[in-house]
Amino acid sequence: MDQVFDLQQKVLIGHKLREFMKINPELSTTDLGRYLGVTQSMVSKLRHDKATFHFDDLPNLFKSTEGLMGSDEFKIAILNVFTGGFIPPLPNYQNVSTDLAALSTRVMDEMRQSTEALNVALDDFSDPSSPNNLKNIDDPEQAFNQLYDVVRYALPLMAIITNAYKLSWTDEANRREREIAKNHEHMI
């Protein structure tokens, strides 16, 4: 699977970790080190990009940040780095509002655009020979671009919803997966 989206096994996350710990002073380097099973000195190295963070340590990092301010946004940002962009980055909040109503409107606009792009590309998707003609892929490419925009703005909206309403992203996602399995929604 790592060949599909260029999964990195270790990355530098210092600037993201520093920002997160700055807005959550209750998460000390000592506490974080205890969660990660490393020394306070190693946490300092991670924070200053003097050491790489390993993919296998993500569960402990995410568990240690659960419930803290901005934890879901932090997780998305870290996953963006590890996946080499496969998971979209958070939008620039200087240009995108974190207001729930405003961001919801943005996501709905992106969904409308993606629906239109999918409708236009549907004839390409229905034609089995279409992938063989790579000279004219404008419609499928536009469908991808519009769907990417939905994901890019929907992920932060989901994070803001969980933070505003004190929900656990993990618990909600697990509950939703159980409902999907129960209702056989995975079958198209």
TrEMBL record:
InterPro entries listed in its UniProt record: Lambda_DNA-bd_dom_sf (IPR010982)
Gene Ontology molecular function: DNA binding
Protein name: Uncharacterized protein
Upper taxonomic lineage: Bacteria, Bacillati, Bacillota, Bacilli, Lactobacillales
